[in-house]
Amino acid sequence: MTSTVERPRLIEGGLHVDTRGSVVFVNDFDFGGVDRFYVVRSHKPYELRGWVGHRREQKWFFVVQGTSLIAVVRPDHWQLPTSDLTVERFTLSAAKPQILYVPPGHATGSTNLTGDAVLLVFSSGKIEDTKADDYRFPVSTWSIVG
Prior knowledge:
- The structure is a single chain.
- By secondary structure, the chain is mostly beta strands.
- The chain has a single domain (9-136), classed as Jelly Rolls (Sandwich), CATH 2.60.120.
- The chain is built from one helix and twelve strands.
- The protein has one helix at residues 127-130; strands at residues 9-12, 14-18, 21-25, 36-40, 48-54, 59-65, 67-73, 87-93, 98-102, 106-112, 118-123, 135-136.
- The strands form three sheets. The chain has a five-stranded antiparallel sheet with strand order 1-9-6-11-4, with no helix packed on it. Strands 8-7-10-5-12 form a five-stranded antiparallel sheet, with no helix packed on it.
- The model has no long low-confidence stretch (mean pLDDT 94).
């Protein structure tokens, strides 16, 4: 019996601009499962962050300002993963609202592509529970930028 592995996917949003200003939205995003969030802002462009993986925790990434690159990999072993695994890369921009959903069983790395990038990350699981589900790998384990 084979099981289907859930893959990262983009949830499309939109941008409405009129004389009053603009409204950014991602109406198909369901906050069910979100327990906390944090904001990531780097000091300079192309600052590499990651790799952090979770077997049970889900993540959702949204760029509030600028442009960021999110890299996603599915580790084959959590203690000593293979370094030649396939990495999926997603460029997220505030100019094209989207949320990247990363299911459990993946590791992520990121970099800001513009100096002003602000990344909003939603996570499932309480912070006290996630400590037992936190796997950190050296940034050189896989290529973030390709």
